[in-house]
Amino acid sequence: MDFFTVPLLGAEFTTPANRGWLFLVSDSLPQGLEIISETHALKVGASQPSSLQEFTGQLLVKLPEGATLDRLDFIRIIPTTSNEK
Q1: CA distances, 33 to each of 9, 25, 49 (Å)
Q2: pLDDT tens across 36-83, in order?
Q3: Which domains does the chain have, with CATH numbers?
Q4: Which of the chain's ends, N or C, has fewer CB atoms near its CB within 10 Å?
Q5: What is the predicted pLDDT for the residue at 62?
Q6: Which pTM does this prediction carry?
Q7: What order of strands is seen across the sheet that includes strand 53-56?
Q8: Residue 77, helix vs strand vs coil
Q9: Contacts of 5 (CB under 8 A, 6+ apart)
Q10: Which CA distances in Å does 48 have to 18, 77, 80?
């Protein structure tokens, strides 16, 4: 387990694919922000998500016009096989 930060370098940003689980821990997300992964999609409405949001694989992040956000923070869990130490 570690922390994973996605720097947002434009209105639309795609991360490289990975084999772990990402749990969104950023707060104060702008209304209209979209985060789409291989297993989950989130579009932030007038209120913040009320539960922990889980994503896996590649992420596509879309910032709404006029929104400012420089990064998204996640807790990342990468599975290991039983013979890895």
Answers
A1: 14, 15, 11
A2: 999 999 999 988 888 889 999 999 999 999 999 999 999 999 888 776
A3: 2-77 (2.60.120)
A4: C
A5: 96
A6: 0.86
A7: 2-7, 71-77, 21-24, 53-56
A8: strand
A9: 71, 72, 73, 74
A10: 26, 23, 32
Tokens of 68: 């400012």
pLDDT at 17 (0 to 100): 78
CA atoms of 25 and 4, how far apart (whole Å) = 10
pLDDT of res. 84: 58
Q: Which pLDDT score is estimated for 80?
A: 82
User: Which amino acid, 27?
Assistant: D
First to last CA, the chain: 14
| Beta strands, E only, the chain | 2-7, 12-14, 21-24, 34-36, 41-43, 53-56, 60-62, 71-77
The region, left, alpha or beta by phi > 0 then psi within -120 to 50, assigned to residue 39 is alpha
Which tokens in the block code for residue 79? 């599975």
